[in-house]
UniProtKB/TrEMBL annotation:
Pfam families: Acetyltransf_3
UniProtKB keywords: Transferase
Domain N-acetyltransferase, residue spans: 9-170
Protein name as catalogued: Diamine N-acetyltransferase
PANTHER family: GNAT-FAMILY ACETYLTRANSFERASE, SPERMIDINE N(1)-ACETYLTRANSFERASE
GO molecular function per UniProt: acyltransferase activity, transferring groups other than amino-acyl groups
InterPro entries according to UniProt: Acyl_CoA_acyltransferase, GNAT_dom
UniProt superkingdom: Bacteria
Coiled-coil blocks: none
Length: 173
């Protein structure tokens, strides 16, 4: 049986107590490039989002889960977005909040759990992600899980005064 519990971390649904954690992530300008965010989010808007987080993925077309350790400390988030039931696919994004916690296998374990969940519970045919050409850590992470680069979107994102290329990666079952 598939579970959302790994050896070191588990994935859980959003809770009202996650307000400060999500607010800190969504308002960190350093990571706006990853999420294509342009403006800060208020606590009010995030609270509204959390109040609706219980809605079904088939209705809202996305699923955000908290990556937590077994001391119940939130470490990051992993998302399914653009969920497309008809074509059996979804986009994936993963973020570990603190840079000191990155490259320790947390994202690896979270992605492994999510990929299994998508195969077993959502019966998805494919997952995809969009990764900046210079994000070597993410390219390595997703490649490790079988995602393959299928295209390069040239001058795709305008970041800090210049355009950056972005890869499209797919994992097809």
């Amino acid at each position: 049986m598939v579970t959302l519990k790994g050896e070191h971390i588990y994935l859980r649904a959003l809770e009202p107590e996650d307000l400060e954690f999500i607010h800190a992530i969504e308002n960190n300008e350093v990571i706006w490039e990853l999420s294509n965010t342009q403006t800060p989010y208020s606590k009010f808007l995030i609270k509204q989002y959390l109040e609706n987080a219980h809605k079904d993925i088939y209705e809202v077309k996305q699923l955000r889960l908290i990556i937590s350790n077994y001391s119940n400390i939130a470490l990051g988030m992993i998302d399914l977005f653009d969920f497309d039931f008809k074509n059996s696919r979804a986009g994936v994004g993963v973020l570990i909040k603190d840079t000191a916690e990155r490259q320790k296998g947390i994202g690896n374990e979270a992605l492994e759990l999510l990929v299994q969940y998508c195969k077993t519970h959502l019966n998805l045919h494919q997952l995809y992600c969009n990764i900046s050409e210079d994000n070597e850590a993410s390219l390595k992470l997703f490649s490790k899980h079988g995602f393959q680069i299928v295209g390069l979107k040239k001058d795709w994102n305008f970041v800090n005064g210049s355009y950056k290329n972005e890869y499209l990666l797919q994992l097809i079952n």
